[in-house]
C-alpha cells in the first residue's frame, strides 16, 4: 500500500486516478499477451500464425489474404478444416486466373472474370485423368476442341486448322476417327468399329464437299485393301502397281526334265488347242479375268511350258538331223547311179 505523507489533498486524488489508469493498462497488456501466444516464432525458423506448433517455415491456421497492391490481389481461400476433404482456391483478383481444388482431390485451372464466373480450361482429376477444355475427362488425356497447327513460324489458327481425334457418335460405338478439318484440301478418316475395319479416307474437296475415296482398308482378319474396302487377301490392290523389283516365292518346273515325265506330243497339243482355245495346264482367259492370277503358279506354268518347248525343239532337232543324214545318203546313191 502506498501512503502519501505531506502531499496536498488535490494531488492525492490525482495519484489515485493515475493508479487506476496504470492498472487498466497493465490488464490490457497482459490480456493481449495471453491471446497473442498463437503467433509463434520458433528457434528452428518455423513461423506460426494462428497456431502454437508450426510445422513449416510459414504455418497459417485460418483464413488469409495476400495483398500485393490494390489491383493485383491473390487470395487463398480454404473451405474446410479437414485436410482429407479440403477444398481451396487461388484467385487473382481482376485477372483471369483461378486454381481450385475440391473434396475429390480434383484440381481445376480456370479463367475468371468478375460477374462472369469461372470457365474451366484444364482439369487434373484425383484419379490421374487430365482434361483440356473439359472438367470431366474420361481418359488419361481428354481434349475437347481443336489442336492448333504448329508451323515453323509459330502458332497458326487460320481457318481453325486442327487435328481431331474422336467423334461422339464414333466413340459411343467403340471406333475412332482422326480428322483434319476446316479450310483444307483433304480429310483423312480412320476407324469403323461396326464393320471391324479401319478405313483411311480422302475427301479431295474438303470434308462434306465430295464423296470420300477409300484409299486403304485394314480388315479385322488382317487383310489389307488398297482401292477396295473388301480385301480378300493379305494385300488386295484395285489398280496398278509400279515397282522396281518384285520377288515371288515359287516352285520351279524342273520336273519336266525327269525321265518319267509324260510329255504330250505336238499332235496332242494341237488337238487340245483347237478344242479349248488355250494351252494345256493353263487357265483360260475368262477364268483369269474373273478370278485373277496366282503369280507364283502362273510363273511356274510358264516355266513348265518353256521347258516343254525346249524338249520339243530338242526332239525336232534330232528329227532334222536324221532327215539330213537320210537326204545325204539319197544324194550319194543318185550321184553314184
From TrEMBL:
<keyword id="KW-0175">Coiled coil</keyword>
<feature type="coiled-coil region">
    <location>
        <begin position="306"/>
        <end position="333"/>
    </location>
</feature>
<protein>
    <recommendedName>
        <fullName>Peptidase S74 domain-containing protein</fullName>
    </recommendedName>
</protein>
Amino acid at each position: 500500500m502506498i501512503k502519501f505523507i505531506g502531499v496536498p489533498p488535490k494531488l492525492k486524488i490525482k495519484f489515485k486516478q493515475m493508479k487506476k489508469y496504470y492498472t487498466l493498462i497493465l490488464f490490457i497488456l497482459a490480456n493481449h499477451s495471453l491471446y497473442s501466444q498463437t503467433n509463434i516464432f520458433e528457434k528452428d525458423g518455423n513461423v506460426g500464425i494462428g497456431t502454437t506448433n508450426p510445422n513449416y517455415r510459414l504455418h497459417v491456421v485460418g483464413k488469409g489474404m495476400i495483398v500485393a497492391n490494390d489491383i493485383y490481389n491473390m487470395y487463398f481461400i480454404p473451405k474446410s478444416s479437414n485436410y482429407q476433404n479440403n477444398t481451396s482456391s487461388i484467385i487473382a483478383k481482376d485477372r483471369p486466373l483461378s486454381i481450385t481444388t475440391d473434396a475429390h482431390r480434383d484440381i481445376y485451372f480456370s479463367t475468371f472474370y468478375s460477374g462472369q464466373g469461372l470457365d474451366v480450361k484444364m482439369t487434373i482429376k484425383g484419379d490421374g485423368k487430365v482434361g483440356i477444355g473439359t472438367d470431366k475427362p474420361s481418359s488419361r488425356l481428354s481434349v475437347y476442341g481443336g489442336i492448333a497447327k504448329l508451323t515453323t513460324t509459330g502458332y497458326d489458327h487460320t481457318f481453325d486448322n486442327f487435328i481431331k481425334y474422336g467423334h461422339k457418335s464414333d466413340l459411343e460405338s467403340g471406333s475412332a476417327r482422326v480428322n483434319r478439318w476446316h479450310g483444307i484440301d483433304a480429310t483423312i478418316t480412320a476407324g469403323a468399329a461396326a464393320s471391324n475395319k479401319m478405313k483411311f479416307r480422302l475427301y479431295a474437296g474438303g470434308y462434306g464437299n465430295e464423296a470420300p475415296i477409300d484409299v486403304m482398308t485394314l480388315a479385322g482378319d488382317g487383310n489389307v485393301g488398297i482401292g477396295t474396302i473388301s480385301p480378300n487377301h493379305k494385300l488386295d490392290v484395285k489398280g496398278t502397281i509400279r515397282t522396281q523389283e518384285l520377288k515371288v516365292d515359287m516352285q520351279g518346273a524342273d520336273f519336266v526334265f525327269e525321265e518319267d515325265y509324260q510329255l504330250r506330243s505336238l499332235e496332242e497339243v494341237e488337238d487340245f488347242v483347237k478344242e479349248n482355245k488355250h494351252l494345256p495346264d493353263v487357265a483360260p482367259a475368262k477364268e483369269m479375268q474373273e478370278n485373277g492370277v496366282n503369280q507364283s503358279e502362273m510363273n511356274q506354268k510358264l516355266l513348265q511350258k518353256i521347258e516343254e518347248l525346249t524338249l520339243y525343239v530338242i526332239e525336232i532337232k534330232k528329227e532334222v538331223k536324221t532327215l539330213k543324214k537320210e537326204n545325204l545318203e539319197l544324194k550319194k546313191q543318185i550321184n553314184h547311179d
